[in-house]
Design a protein that fits this description.
heterotrimer, A mainly alpha (285), B alpha/beta (269), C mainly alpha (296), A: 285 residues, mainly alpha, MetI-like fold, C: 296 residues, 13 helices
């Protein structure tokens, strides 16, 4: 009797996850229906106008979608030359050694720092540097936001990649050494190709992080409504426009912001599922 | 090289005036300070022979084999001392990369590169060493190497499949072909059949007898009957020492050392 | 190609290749080292700017108004006030979220570890992954629609609902993975002794996996501790200490956001950040110790 109640409770708990997810998708769609009906699905997505003034009210997500993709992909690009060496350091060169666990822990702590503290650091320390570099006059913009984002996602990309690299059997690597290859050649011709799908999955997950990151970006990107065309431009991401404008929003504008939230949810969900799919396939062999 | 004579094979027959191709002089390997896995081993190995290295597990036989292509250099805590001459050159003073090209290695478990095709696996040594070849040269090497391991007919139509697509025995033959492609001076084999079924094992043994015509082979094995079947000379190692080194026939019929006899008669091992 | 030519080619490139190998190794060490620098820079900045105001006042007084801070500044005195309302708010919101998350996450984790091949469990597992990757700002929107709108007010409850949605997948995963690592014989031994299924789970399995489960909870708490975006849409913030879960409530990250937007209050922004970092790093450290101590 007790067991049946308990098993029922376990099932109910699992059911809550199902209902929670269904509920999330339902409320996002329901509360953004207004904006999608007003402009049409593609009309909302591909429209770069965002004008909340009541006499010329018009909402489109395009500039934020481009701002999001621009910053996230540039951040991903910037993070590779740092996260890949960390992955090789921990998963190949110093695999299983004390120093790799030290480096691993230090880099992982980067993931623990709150987004808002990254924002402060970016504002007070990096922004003057960016101005000095002459990127633009205010320092705010795609470039600054991407640099900080890149640092934020290093641990996500590196720790998972290191794990996949460390799983490569020594015997295969010894095969390469026995033919006269150097360590670097073994890494390039054997280890990296073998770990490639895992590493790709790690970077896809890191990209997912970058796409949804809110506070640091909000504090650094400049918060302007325009389709950014260069790294010097200011802009807004989907997450930052929600953070900035949700508070005072109502009516169609609220619906538009929730619509952007829905789009962001769909994009990150697809990205994450692709990464998880690759990893599940790897685990299955 | 006068004192090499002391390490001459313990042999009643004359070795037909052959110069040894590989000379081990006082080779020791330790994994930790004071703990020697291989202790002061000296031996001469003659060209176009198969030499089996036997002994109970942990006796240092694989460790000795791996010293010959400087595998221990990959692990900073392993210390190798002594001299090893390959074709008269002291390989302990050479760059390990050169040494490894001259001494081909085949491992316990077949380890073809899983991301490369069969074709690329055979050529891996060239690719890894940064040697550029023309298409017809590549084809030639692949055909010759795979023919030498009797794999050509089985795989010639599936050249672009991954190496891991083959069966275990085929994978091991592919690995041998990969080592042969670089035309090594000696072929070092570390229990190459221990992960294989009897039929594949048989095929590899036949193959080794064929390869002996062109190569010198050192094979570590814990399978005594394998050593008896294919080897010309045998070494018996125990606790890091080279206890006995003699022509296989002689060792299996009249072992000089008591330990060898005990091992061969199955008292321990 | 003749063997001789090949050997010549090999010998001639060996120096270059060895040099390249060393350069690659050096570059990897160098860039790995560079990757650690931001952490130290951030910690340095927060500590060097935050220690001055990191005092008793920080824990005992609420955040100052902009006006008070301005007056203090003009008379050359340090700005008054602390972040008491943020500390209590974070405690309230995160505490409530833990209360919601732990039982639910534990149950779902147990369910998933017990039904590995079942279609429904696999679906739930996929959805957990989906929730885990969900941007925090979207979770903020959800909690706004679910709690703030119906209740007609921003509240600590809404904030903790948002944090619950964030923590849940982490706790589910760590529970599931820990229990999956336990040997199957453990459960069988319990059942063989005649214990009920419920008892085996709660008296054998969960205590055996305690280290992993607790580590997961600690890490989840440290992850949501500094979350700002979802709280902006739900808890909103308050200038006083509030213990009513239905009222708007401050939190440390929310106060940092307020200070950031108000030039007069910038002086205590670093102390607040310092406190946040200390708590988060402590939780991470504790998680590591727990994981090591109760290793399976």
């Amino acid at each position: 009797m007790k067991d049946r109640v308990f098993k029922g409770l376990l099932f109910a708990a699992a059911l809550i996850i199902l209902m929670l997810t269904a509920g999330i998708i339902y409320v996002l769609i329901k509360n953004s229906l207004d904006v999608f009906q007003t402009y049409g699905f593609f009309g909302f997505i591909f429209n770069a106008e965002w004008d909340p003034r009541s006499d010329s009210e018009e909402y489109g997500a395009w500039s934020f979608i481009i701002g999001t993709l621009f910053t996230a992909f540039f951040a991903l690009l910037l993070c590779i030359p740092f996260s890949l060496p960390v992955a090789l350091f921990n998963g190949e060169y110093f695999k299983g050694r004390k120093i790799s666990s030290v480096v691993g822990s230090v880099v992982d702590l980067l993931a623990g720092i709150p987004s808002i503290v990254y924002g402060l650091w970016g504002f007070y320390t990096l922004r003057p540097v960016v101005i000095q570099l002459g990127v633009n006059a205010s320092g705010f913009g795609i470039f600054l936001a991407s640099v900080v984002l890149a640092i934020m996602i290093i641990p996500y990309a590196s720790s998972l990649s290191a794990e996949f690299l460390s799983m490569i059997p020594d015997t295969v690597k010894e095969g390469a050494y026995s033919l006269g290859a150097t360590r670097a050649e073994t890494i390039w011709h054997v280890s990296l190709p073998m770990a490639s799908s895992g590493i790709v999955a790690a970077y896809i997950l890191a990209l997912g992080r970058a796409l949804g990151e809110t506070m640091a970006v909000t504090m650094l990107i400049g918060n302007t409504t325009n389709v950014p065309s260069s790294l010097r431009d200011t802009g807004n991401t989907m997450a930052s426009v929600i953070a900035n404008q949700f508070g005072e929003a109502d009516g169609l504008k609220l619906s538009a912001l929730i619509g952007i939230g829905l789009l962001l949810f769909v994009i990150t969900a697809i990205i994450n599922l692709i990464a998880k799919f690759i990893m599940k396939k790897l685990a299955a062999g | 090289m006068e004192n090499i004579t002391e390490n001459r094979l313990n042999n009643q027959e004359d070795n037909s005036g052959n110069e040894p191709i590989l000379v081990l002089k006082e080779v020791s390997v330790s994994y930790a300070p004071g703990k020697k896995a291989v202790d002061n081993v000296s031996a001469d190995i003659y060209p176009n022979t198969i030499t089996a290295i036997m002994g109970p597990s942990g006796c240092g036989k694989s460790t000795l084999l791996r010293a010959i292509n400087r595998m221990h250099d990959l692990y900073p805590n392993i210390v190798t001392s002594g001299d090893i001459y390959l074709k008269g050159k002291n390989i302990m003073k050479m760059n390990p990369m050169e040494v490894r090209r001259m001494a081909g290695m085949v491992f316990q478990t077949p380890n073809p590169f899983p991301t490369m095709s069969i074709y690329d696996n055979v050529l891996a040594g060239y690719r890894l060493n940064g040697i550029k070849l023309k298409k017809n040269e590549k084809d030639e090497i692949v055909r010759k190497s795979l023919t030498a391991v009797a794999l050509w007919d089985e795989v010639k139509d599936v050249m672009n499949r991954r190496g891991s697509f083959l069966s275990g025995g085929q994978q091991q033959r592919l690995c041998i072909a990969r080592a042969l492609a670089l035309k090594p001076e000696v072929l070092l084999m570390d229990e190459p059949t221990s992960a294989l079924d009897p039929v594949s094992t048989n095929k590899i043994e036949e193959l080794l007898l064929e390869l002996k015509k062109n190569f010198t082979i050192l094979i570590v094995t814990h399978n005594m009957s394998q050593a008896a079947r294919i080897s010309d000379n045998s070494m018996f190692m125990y606790l890091g020492d080279l206890v006995e080194y003699a022509p296989t026939k002689q060792m299996f019929t009249k072992p000089k050392n008591k330990k060898t006899e005990e091992y061969l008669t199955g008292i321990f091992g | 190609m003749k063997d001789k030519d090949r050997d010549k080619m090999m010998w001639s490139n060996i120096k270059k290749r060895s040099a390249k190998d060393k350069i690659v190794f050096g570059a990897i060490c160098f860039f790995s080292f560079l990757s650690m620098i931001p952490l130290f820079l951030i910690i340095w900045e927060v500590v060097s700017k935050g220690y001055k105001n990191f005092n008793w006042r920080l824990f005992t007084q609420v955040a100052p108004s902009s006006m008070d801070a301005l007056i203090a500044k003009m008379s050359g005195e340090p700005i008054p006030g602390g972040i008491l309302n943020g500390i209590t708010g974070t405690f309230l919101i995160v505490g409530l979220a833990v209360l919601f998350t732990v039982p639910l996450g534990l149950f779902v984790g147990i369910y998933l570890s017990e039904h590995r091949d079942n279609k429904f469990a696999q679906t739930v597992s996929y959805l957990t992954d989906l929730l885990q990757g969900m941007p925090s700002i979207v979770i903020g929107i959800i909690a706004y629609i679910w709690v703030v709108k119906p209740l007609g007010s921003y509240s600590a409850l809404a904030g903790s609902v948002a944090l619950t949605i964030m923590m849940l997948p982490m706790v589910v995963r760590s529970t599931e993975e820990t229990l999956k690592m336990l040997p199957h014989s453990l459960k069988e031994a319990g059942l063989a002794l005649g214990a009920s299924y419920t008892d085996v789970i709660f008296k054998v399995m969960v205590p055996s996996g305690f280290g992993g489960i607790f580590t997961g909870i600690l890490l989840a708490v440290s992850r949501v501790m500094g979350e700002t975006a979802p709280l902006m849409l739900t808890a909103l913030g308050a200038s006083v200490v509030n213990w009513n879960i239905l009222e708007p409530t401050a939190a440390i990250p929310l106060l940092i956001w307020d200070f950031y937007n108000d030039p007069n209050l910038v002086d205590i922004i670093w102390s607040a950040s310092l406190l946040l970092l200390i708590v988060i790093f402590l939780l991470n450290w504790l998680a590591k110790i727990v994981a090591r101590k109760w290793k399976i």
